[in-house]
């Protein structure tokens, strides 16, 4: 009988782990028909597998490996920006950045990265005219180091938000953000595991007008602390030891590999809390207005480096033997939550081991989350509370080649139900 109970306990532990991994909107792990879990949806499409893949909830083995960090300084003297729909995950094809939305409002002009936000062609889900901004993300993943940017913001109108952040799909994030109507101020913030809170935010003087002149901002991200610099001066230090949550028994501190994001988005046209935080309603009285943020250079210095020679082989997935059609999703692309494979992690065992030992993966895609204005619909702001918000992950009517399959939903639910039924029957047999 003791042996039977041990067997039962082992089986229950195993099956519970299988059903606990779910792609949120499908209530199940994604199947081979739409293998990539992104923002709770099961998708197909190479750009999802290469960049946005939530490894814990996607079809096993489907997520592409994460290209690891290589130190570099980009002065934007050449075109090293690729549209996300054309990016196959290979970091060695000559591009340092990927533009995440379609239509693409990011461009390299006169030695600067220019992120534009014109008025969108349609109103957002709140019935407001909304800007359609841009987000550019690094093609390689960083885990600790320094990231510096020289920025001229778009804070000439309330509601317009410029962002320079480090973010991963698990919901860890480190922020510099400039909200509309406060050009002399920069907000710093950090998030852990998608838990958005106002208590981690702190604002500081830029020492000038951030919208009319360039200023330099830097993150120093270490295992035990984060330092925020403005014009080479430390304005804030966050210590990991101070983020301990005794109830959850975890340090609520960004510790997992992430991508660098540069963005502009419309925070003034969504739910009231976000609008208030962003400085008020965005001025769209002239529908031809285009708000612009400028990045003069970005410097990334990896703590764990030496990945230049790691070869890239684009993974090939077996084609499903049956159902292959799926309906188009309106979600757009942001960063990935893939796991490193041996091929990409071998060049930096320290990084790989550090990543493996960091906090457990969340199922939420978060940050950079928002909606029709590229801004605010999925912020945790539905209670209309005021506070700093994560950068949005998708724009209103933008579409990529990501897809989601109703077949996956129904098949996965049927499989989950059958699995649990089998566990129940076997439990009854063992106990008898």
Could you explain how this protein is built, in words?
The radius of gyration is 22 Å and the shape is globular. It has helices at 2-20, 46-52, 272-277, 342-345, 349-357, 406-431, and strands at residues 36-38, 41-43, 72-74, 81-83, 97-99, 106-109, 112-118, 134-138, 145-152, 160-167, 173-178, 185-191, 202-205, 215-221, 225-230, 233-239, 244-245, 250-251, 259-266, 290-302, 327-328, 403-404. By secondary structure, it is of the alpha+beta class. Among the domains are: 19-65; 72-302, Jelly Rolls. Helix 1 (2-20) runs antiparallel to helix 6. Strand 10 and strand 11 (173-178) form a beta hairpin. 16% of the residues lie in helices and 26% in strands. It is built from 6 helices and 22 strands. Residues 313-410 are annotated as: Disordered. Residues 1-21 form the signal peptide. GO terms for molecular function: carbohydrate binding; hydrolase activity, hydrolyzing O-glycosyl compounds. Residues 394-407 have a biased composition (Basic and acidic residues).
How would you summarize this macromolecular structure in one to three sentences?
The protein is α+β, with helices and mostly antiparallel strands and 432 residues long.
Percentage of residues in DSSP E strands: 25-35%
Largest sheet, in brief, is: 8 strands, antiparallel
User: Which consecutive residue ranges, at least 5 long each, have pLDDT under 50?
Assistant: 1-20, 322-385, 388-431
What is the C-alpha radius of gyration, as a whole number of Å? 22 Å
Assigned CATH architecture of the domain at 72-302: Sandwich
Distance between the termini: 9 Å
């Amino acid at each position: 009988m003791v042996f039977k109970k041990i067997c039962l306990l082992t089986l229950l532990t195993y099956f519970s782990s299988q059903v606990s991994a779910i792609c949120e909107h499908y209530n199940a792990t994604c199947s081979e028909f739409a293998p990539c879990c992104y923002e709770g949806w099961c998708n197909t499409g190479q750009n999802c597998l290469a960049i946005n893949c939530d490894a814990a909830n996607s079809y096993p083995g489907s997520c592409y490996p994460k290209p690891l960090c290589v130190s570099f300084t980009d002065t934007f003297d050449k075109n090293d920006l690729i549209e996300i729909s054309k990016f196959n995950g290979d970091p060695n094809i000559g591009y340092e950045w990927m533009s995440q939305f379609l239509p693409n409002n990011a461009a390299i002009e006169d030695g600067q990265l220019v992120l534009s936000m014109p008025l969108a062609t349609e109103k957002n889900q709140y019935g407001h005219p909304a800007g359609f901004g841009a987000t550019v993300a690094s093609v390689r993943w960083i885990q600790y180091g320094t990231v510096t940017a020289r920025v001229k913001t778009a804070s000439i109108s309330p509601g317009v938000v410029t962002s320079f952040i480090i973010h991963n799909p698990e919901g860890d994030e480190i922020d510099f953000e400039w909200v509309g109507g406060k050009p002399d101020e920069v907000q710093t913030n950090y998030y852990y595991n998608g838990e958005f809170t106002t208590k981690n935010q702190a604002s500081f003087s830029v020492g000038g007008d951030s919208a009319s002149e360039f200023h330099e901002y830097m993150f120093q991200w270490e295992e035990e602390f984060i330092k925020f610099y403005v014009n080479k001066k430390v304005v804030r230090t966050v210590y990991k030891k101070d983020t301990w949550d005794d109830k959850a028994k975890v340090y609520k501190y960004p510790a997992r590999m992430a991508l660098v994001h540069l963005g502009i988005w419309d925070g003034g046209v969504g739910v009231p809390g976000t609008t208030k935080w962003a400085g008020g309603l965005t001025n769209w009285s002239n529908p031809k207005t285009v708000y612009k943020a400028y990045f003069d250079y970005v410097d990334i210095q990896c703590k764990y480096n030496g990945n230049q020679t790691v070869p890239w082989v684009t993974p090939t997935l077996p084609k499903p033997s049956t159902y292959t059609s799926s309906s188009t999703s309106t979600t757009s692309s942001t960063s990935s939550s893939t796991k490193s494979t041996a091929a990409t992690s071998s060049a930096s065992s320290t990084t790989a081991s550090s990543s493996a030992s960091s906090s457990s993966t969340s199922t939420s895609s978060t940050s950079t989350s928002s909606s029709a204005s590229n801004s605010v619909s999925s912020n945790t702001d539905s209670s209309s509370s005021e506070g700093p918000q994560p950068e949005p992950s998708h724009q209103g009517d933008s579409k990529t080649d990501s897809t989601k399959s109703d077949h996956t939903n129904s098949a996965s639910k049927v499989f989950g139900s059958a699995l649990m039924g089998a566990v129940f029957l076997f439990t009854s047999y063992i106990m008898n």
